[in-house]
Amino acid sequence: MHSTSLSLFHLSSLLLPLFTFHATSAPVTDDFSTYIVHLDPSSRPEHFTTHQQWHSSIVCDVKSSTSSSHHHFSSLENSFLYSYQNALHGFSAVLSQQELQTLENIPGFLSYYKDKLVTMDTTYTPEFMSLNPSTGLWPDSKFGEDVIIGVIDTGIWPESPSFSDHEMMYTSKLPSKWKGTCQEGQDFNSSLCNSKLIGARYFNKGVKAANPNVTLTMNSARDTQGHGTHTSSTAAGNYVDGASFFGYADGVARGMAPRARVAMYKVIWDEGRYASDVLAGMDQAVADGVDIISISMGFDGVPLYEDPVAIASFGAMDKGILVSSSAGNAGPKGGPLHNGIPWVLTVAAGNFDRTYAASLILGNNKEKEQHVIVGRSMFPLNAWVKDETLIYNKTLSKCDSLKLLSEAPRGIIVCDDTGFPNDQMDVIDSATNLAGVIFVSKDPSRFDLESMSCPGVLISTTELDTVIDYIKSSDNPTSTIKFQQTVTGKEVAPSVADYTSRGPSPNCPAVLKPDVLAPGSHVLASWIPNGYTATVGTNTLLSSEGFHLISGTSMACPHASGVAALLRGAHREWSHAAIRSAMMTTANELDSSMMAIKDVGLNFTAASPLAMGAGHMVPNKAMDPGLVYDVARQDYVSLLCSMNFTRNQIMTITRSNVYDCSNSSLDLNYPSFVAFYDKNVTTGAMLKHRFRRVVTNVGAAAATYEVKVVAPEGVKVAVWPKSLVFEKKNEQRDYNVEIVYPSDGKGRVLYGSIVWVEESGKHAVRSSIVVAPTSAGK
């Protein structure tokens, strides 16, 4: 495309309108709602050969015994939705209150809860994380070959080149463990699956039950929103040359595990997003034989025994499947994270060192000297604003009056730093005579410019001084703005994104969450054709390149899912907990300037583990962590036993009435430590917390580790023994930690670390320590 000089308001012929469906979450009827019911599988009568027969029989019997026989939902066909048999045990059905009361008296009943809405949480990132095609985790894992990632999301666009099986068709047959299928549906036939996209299913009974007369926009696994296509290609997309977003971030796109297999489970619909469908998708993924489940969504404000992700992921963990999940987008102070589940990997979102830019050229070719300022921009057209008059005066510079802006002469207007450049853009979009705009911020990196609807550039206040000096010194100040530029390696990175939700986990604060930080801002990945991507003025640009740049913990999660797939490929013998531990203990707490990673949402102060977990993932180090903190099923059960849950609540999660609570403990063998205090207790009162940890040697046959403690401010940390000696691989050693800390009346979060350093210096196994008020995250 050739560069063009443009005005904001002569683009309507290039653009198409966008129509958005707004889903409702109305109940099924006033008397009936969808419920998820959990059962004890050991209570199934012998005359039923399958759990599904038993589940459907229960619903049939309950309906026949109540007085709603003439209602639409009185028949089994209309009311029975799903039978869950793999990741959990139970069913979902449309039931009345009277039917629920009857249901509570049947043998094997454990619990029920009403269906609920799920919250959705988007090329260069492999290089940013130092993945190298010649050495390290990529080649050692064969780029994730034959590892199956099950993605729970909005569906997939199978024709995207990211899901081509180029160079995969002849390398290996489908894994023998794979039991999935390519489910046909609207505009989706089985031939669309291949050696890369090996499975696709869709689950819509929950959304249909909530909206009985609904007609689904796309009744198949095909994606209509873009989210699922984006996340799955981030985790495991194949190599695609020439990928970009309207010229930004151009290069070769590929997922973190480019040779892994993808299976899509569509559970999110334009018409709604319901727990019953999410559970069905996760349940089927476990049955199909996936190795990793990637789920970029979660449920807010629910206990573990009513959290569909927590319940289904426990069943997945039982089958050796690692579940990778997003922490949520409610940061920095909008609310605590979700998916703070002890047996899953919880991923926070960070920024990385790629920025999208425009060059602001002061002066024209006739002048002896031209000054170039590189500012931030995401204006989506390949265009120049060329040799336009620079306008700066105090009457216009607030850029908050549509009347004044519309009366201004044509040119490039300079806006003052008001702290709200996005609000200024909204006003300028409706103005009619501006060739371009210069926005100003004390700290441009704070603003997440996923798009820029006007031909503008964002510069710093220091750079504004240069612009003003030029305007004052010139009789005819002019400027040119050149868009679609990408800059890498210039910014200090990573940093914690302001939107990422913070810990501690509201439903299990004893386990420090999130776990790790991964790239989540301005991530380039595949998108649906003709899907909304950007605006220019008041018009909408549709995606024609098949890629999009978006942000969120939804985008961070599949990065971690892909790395987990690589580790699974390199270490088939590792448990889910060993993989998670390797990712955590090798994560980096320092940025590219070798300073503490900063938190954008907290004025660039040092980020605490409540924001970034152990730190930013370092995949190559995770391949060889030295020591791992493993966790067995019984360890999780012992944790649940200590949380004051009832027997039925524990069984809802564990799916078994055979469990041991004799050693109940909140002290899970996790690669981190967290202690809480009540800030209302007398300041200076000393508190004490003890922990025990067991580490497994997965490094060399013989090794000795010495402990190094970085104690939080004002906190005493004792570790014994101070050295761990291993004589062989897979040998275990335990150690103890005592933290003595004051009750801080200021409610500060204090943090430090315990590092086990191998004598050779090859391994440094780091675990975070956090001392926080009980009110943290609330």
Structural class: alpha/beta
In angstroms, what is the radius of gyration? Answer: 28 Å
Shape: globular
Average of per-residue pLDDT values: 86
Instruction: Give the end-to-end Cα distance, rounded to a whole number of Å.
Output: 51 Å
Low-pLDDT sequence parts: 1-27
- The number of helical segments is 18
Report strand %.
Answer: 25-35%
Total strands: 41
Largest sheet: 10 strands, mixed
Oligomer: single chain
Brief characterization of the structure:
The protein contains 18 helices and 41 strands. The protein has 778 residues and is α/β, with parallel strands linked by helices. The radius of gyration is 28 Å and the shape is globular.
Keyphrases for this structure?
glycoprotein, 29% strand, 18 helices, single chain, 778 residues, 20% helix, 10-stranded mixed beta sheet, Subtilisin-like protease, alpha/beta
How would you portray this structure in words?
With 778 residues, the protein is an alpha/beta fold. Helices cover 20% and strands 29% of the residues. The chain is built from 18 helices and 41 strands. The strands form ten sheets. Strands 7, 8, 11, 14, 16, 17, 25, 26, 31 and 32 form a ten-stranded mixed sheet that branches. Strands 1, 18, 19, 20, 21, 22, 23 and 24 form an eight-stranded mixed sheet that branches. The protein is globular. The two termini are 51 Å apart. 54% of the residues are buried. Residues 667-771 form the Subtilisin-like protease fibronectin type-III domain. GO terms for molecular function: serine-type endopeptidase activity. It comes from Linum trigynum. InterPro entries: Peptidase_S8/S53_dom, Peptidase_S8/S53_dom_sf, Peptidase_S8_Ser-AS, Peptidase_S8_subtilisin-rel, Peptidases_S8_3, S8pro/Inhibitor_I9, S8pro/Inhibitor_I9_sf, SBT.
